[in-house]
Specification:
Elements (H helix, E strand, L loop, with lengths): L1 E5 L6 E6 L3 H20 L5 H23 L6 H4 L3 H12 L11 H23 L9 H32 L3 H7 L1 E3 L1
Antiparallel strand pairs: 1-2, 2-3
Organism: Rhizobium paranaense
InterPro entries: Cyt_b561_bac/Ni-Hgenase (IPR011577), Di-haem_cyt_TM (IPR016174), Hydrogenase_cytochrome (IPR051542)
Membrane topology: Multi-pass membrane protein
């Protein structure tokens, strides 16, 4: 359903639609907050670092379930990135065409699924470090760190891509993840 809202910078009405539901937005900002906390603020291996990791594990579980039963743009079936979709999107960018997706575009879909897989691997390896069977195993701690650092690198790429796409499409995609609304 399209809703007409007034843009504060412009007296003309602008049509927006609801795209990101509260579950998707809460997942997104929970993960952003948790990554900032665990990568830059909290001491690794300590209580609050672990609790933050468990919070991500719960959020990830909810998001995966929501990917099958949630709203239209939250469902994996809405944005699953087939090779044809990904290549078509890349060719559109190379050719200067501004193909726009209401939900995730194919490259954003690849990034989201990759980040979710890395988050799951980070949660799993972090949890495994607390088990007696792996107590003190440096290889597991190092793997956990490498995966966490990979998330950080990809998160920066994701953020940069969101800013570039916002500029290309003249639409604030970061703000849409706050409000849940995008241009119609």
């Amino acid at each position: 359903m399209t809703e007409i809202t007034t843009n504060e910078n412009d007296l003309a009405p602008s049509a927006t639609i609801k795209v990101w539901d509260p579950v998707v937005r809460l997942f997104h900002w929970t993960v952003v907050s948790a990554c900032v906390l665990n990568l830059f603020i909290l001491e690794e291996g300590r209580y609050w670092h672990r609790m933050t990791g468990y919070t991500v594990a719960v959020a990830l579980t909810v998001r995966v379930l929501w990917g099958f039963v949630g709203t239209k743009h939250a469902r994996f079936s809405d944005f699953f990135p087939t090779p044809a979709k990904v290549m078509g999107h890349i060719f559109d960018i190379v050719d200067g065409r501004k193909s726009r997706s209401i939900g995730h575009n194919p490259l954003a879909s690849v990034m989201m699924l990759l980040l979710m897989a890395l988050l799951a691997a980070t949660c799993l390896t972090g949890w495994m470090t607390t088990l007696d069977a792996f107590w003190g195993d440096k290889w597991l701690e190092e793997l956990h760190g490498v995966i966490a650092n990979s998330i950080m690198v990809l998160a920066f790429v994701h953020a940069a891509a969101a800013l570039i796409e916002s500029w290309r499409h003249r639409e604030n995609l970061v703000w849409s993840m706050v409000t849940g609304r995008k241009k119609a």
